[in-house]
Amino acid sequence: MGKIILFRGKAATGKTLITDILGKELNIAIIRKDDIYDSLWMYHLEHSTINRISCDIMAEIIQTNIDTDCDLIIDISLAHNPYLEQFLSKIEFKGSKLYQFLCICSDDREWGNRLKSRFDNPKPNQLFKSVKEAEEHYNQYHTEPFEHEIVLDSAKDVSIIMGSIYEALKN
């Protein structure tokens, strides 16, 4: 039975840092929605179209890994709960173990600083132009954790975060 280890959350909440560390430590492949999005961006499609295609491609890759009983780490934004539910409905887990983590940053000042550092050299998937714009965007969505989801606060030391992940992966 393969493991699918999924990390989601708002922009700049530590998903990439955490998945980089975990992927290296466990020697498990990582798939990131942002990598797919950034590759599709050069075709000058609308944001919603790129998002839909990115999620469809990710779902197919995840399904292939499930079908071949391989472990996989997923780094996907999907901070809005209905979007995650819709995405997961595309995948037949067939007994694979799904571990879900919601990345947050409880320190608003730190989160703002992380966002600001992205504004200087934005990637195609970086749509926000200001911290206020990001706050207004996320205030429209349901971003609370699901009952079975483990919350990781990236305002904490990374060793604490990794300890929480490893504890969850024991189950």
Shape: globular
Structural class call reads: alpha/beta
State the end-to-end distance: 13 Å
The CATH superfamily title: P-loop containing nucleotide triphosphate hydrolases
Task: Give me a quick take on this structure.
This protein is α/β, with parallel strands linked by helices and 171 residues long. The protein has seven helices and five strands; from the N terminus they run βαβααβαβααβα.
What labels would you give this structure?
alpha/beta; 15% strand; Rossmann fold; 171 residues; 5-stranded parallel sheet; 7 helices
Please, could you describe this protein's structure?
- It is a single chain.
- The protein is an alpha/beta fold and 171 residues long.
- The protein has a single domain, classed as P-loop containing nucleotide triphosphate hydrolases (Rossmann fold, 3-Layer(aba) Sandwich), CATH 3.40.50.300.
- 49% of the residues lie in helices and 15% in strands.
- Strands 2-3-1-4-5 form a five-stranded parallel beta sheet, sandwiched between helices.
- Helix 2 crosses helix 3 (47-67).
- It is globular.
List the helices and strands and how they pair.
Blueprint: E1 3-9, H1 15-26, E2 30-32, H2 33-41, H3 47-67, E3 72-75, H4 81-88, E4 97-104, H5 108-119, H6 131-139, E5 150-153, H7 158-169
Parallel strand pairs: 1-3, 1-4, 2-3, 4-5
Helix pairs in contact: 2-3
